[in-house]
Design a protein that fits this description.
The chain is α/β, with parallel strands linked by helices. The protein has 18 helices and eleven strands. The strands form two sheets. It has a six-stranded antiparallel sheet, sandwiched between helices. Strand 4, helix 4 and strand 5 form a beta-alpha-beta unit. The longest helix has about 50 residues. About 30% of the residues are buried.
């Protein structure tokens, strides 16, 4: 059986650079790619726990590498994923800022195969040791809490069976709470929780309805609609539960007991203040109780019961999101939407194993000695394209050079071209950019994009004459563009990728 390859995410706006790194590392690792920082963040959001290392370029359009590092810090991904910066930039300000933001290492282009291999493996092994140490500590904590959790689940099952409900409700709330909290940490830093705190809250959720022990069984198991008086008695279970836990003579300051008391009392509060027992609003409700409340409502909608209607998973999610089950924290609703499929699968596949600890991830691969590097056909094709691009640029180095991207619309000027024109280096949505409109005019910009759209794989080179304003002076100019296309694997057709262009200024002094 083949060992599963570890994932490496390569983030670089140059397909050539991504291809070269994929050639170097592709035999040992599963390669994931992103063309810019925005794509990188989306990949990290979906696969963060599976990625072993990120190779991250600094200078990129849309979102640069330093911004990606900042986001990785805010979501705490940087704590678990080593980042190696890859760039031709040598300025100490760039490199220093990258290290400040948590980068593990730095590789300068052009790439040296041996250096890339050693630094990638060193980064993985360094984080592996860190994870193993954290794992040992977590294992000790887990062993301490395991018997405690067992007793809590037994007690909670008594409550559920007395209430005429499935004993699985406790386990389902546990599982759903844990998933929601884990994804909450991925999606926002508003509620910072450690893995230990997430485990503790999930465990404490088992006691959310412990107060029902003190409620008359005839009320708990009544088939008909409760009278206002009976409903008032049932609502008292949140206070009974808190009091029961408060009356325990020992360990009142233990985090588990504190969390359980909070959850017991507040898991029927609602974000708009319509809940009980205190009518708390917003984040006056502890986040632990907010999450358990959401997990509790979801499971009661989907879990079979003789006392209420049961709804399919998708309908239950929609009911909660639309507000039919009360008001919830908008952030948590987004988390629920993001977590919906995972919750459905987790509860369907193995609801009884929620207390089984996941094995600590171990990364113990040794560096594989390689006698050579295979160059892929992709890299060879890219080399031809880069050579073509270089020859085009090198034919006249006095002109203003730029690249155009179509979706989304963006123009990036090379060297100091943007500075000469007074428009900046990279301009997103040029037709709405004031500086671009002042320099080129709306009509010229529209014609530029129409010109690009008129090109094709058979006729990639197009040109136009125009007048642009530089430093307040109108200058007759000629714009020549070479479009580039790539073959789509899905349709086997050529699709527009980008365009590179030159602006020839008739009045050379105006651009100096």
């Amino acid at each position: 059986m083949n060992e599963r390859k570890q994932k490496i995410l390569i983030v670089d706006d140059s397909e050539m650079n991504r291809s070269i790194l994929a050639d170097i590392l592709g035999e040992e690792f599963e390669i994931m790619e992103a063309r810019d920082g925005i794509e990188a963040v989306n990949v990290l959001r979906s696969f963060s726990v599976e990625i072993s290392v990120v190779l991250l370029d600094i200078v990129m359009p849309k979102m640069d590498g330093l911004q990606v590092l900042a986001i990785m810090n805010s979501y705490k991904w940087i704590h678990n994923i080593p980042v190696i910066m890859i760039s031709a930039e040598t300025a100490s300000s760039y490199i220093g800022k990258a290290y400040e933001l948590g980068a593990t290492d730095y590789i300068q282009r052009p790439f040296d195969t041996t250096v890339v291999h050693h630094r990638v493996h060193n980064a993985i092994m360094l984080y592996s040791k860190q994870k193993n140490l954290i794992g040992l500590v977590e294992e000790q904590i887990y062993e301490k809490q395991k018997d405690q959790s067992l007793l809590i689940n037994i007690l909670s099952h008594i409550v559920e069976f007395r209430n005429g409900e499935s004993g699985l409700h406790v386990l389902n709330v546990y599982t759903t709470t844990e998933i929601l909290l884990q994804n909450l940490m991925k999606m926002t830093d508003k509620y910072p929780l450690t893995p230990q705190e997430i485990s503790l809250i999930a465990t404490a959720s088992s006691l959310h309805d412990i107060g029902k022990i003190a409620v008359d069984g005839n009320i708990l198991n009544k088939h008909e609609k409760l009278t206002p008086e009976e409903r008032a008695i049932l609502r008292k279970h949140v206070e009974y539960g808190e009091q029961m836990l408060h009356d325990i003579p020992y360990h009142q300051n233990e985090p588990l007991l504190c969390a359980a008391r909070e959850i017991c009392r507040y898991h029927h509060e609602r974000y708009d203040g319509s809940g009980y027992p205190e009518g708390l609003k917003g984040d006056d409700i502890p986040i632990s109780a907010q999450v358990v409340a959401l997990a509790d409502v979801y499971d009661k909608l989907t879990c079979a019961s003789p006392y209420r209607e049961t709804y399919p998973h998708a309908q239950a999610i929609e009911m909660i999101l639309s507000g039919k089950c009360g008001a919830f924290n908008p952030v948590l609703l987004k988390v629920l939407q993001f977590s919906a499929d995972k919750i459905r699968v987790a509860l369907r596949e193995n609801p009884m194993s929620v207390n089984n600890r996941k094995d600590v991830e171990r990364i113990t691969r040794e560096a594989i000695s390689r006698s050579g590097n295979r160059v892929s056909q992709r890299t060879l094709d890219l080399l031809d394209r880069e050579r073509e691009k270089f020859q085009f640029i090198a034919s006249d180095s006095r002109e203003i050079l730029f690249e155009v991207y179509r979706d989304p619309a963006m123009i990036s000027f090379l060297d100091d071209g943007g500075e000469k024109l007074g428009v900046g280096v990279t301009v997103t949505d040029p037709l709405k950019d004031g500086k671009m409109l002042a320099c080129f005019g709306e009509e010229t910009l529209k014609k530029l994009f129409e010109l690009i759209d008129s090109a094709s794989g058979e006729n990639p080179k197009v040109s136009m004459d125009c007048t642009i304003k530089i430093q307040g002076k109108l200058c007759r100019s000629r714009i020549v563009i070479m479009t580039q296309y790539s073959r789509s694997p899905a349709s086997d057709k050529y699709e527009f990728e980008s365009a590179i262009g030159k602006i020839y200024i008739s009045d050379a002094e105006a651009a100096a």
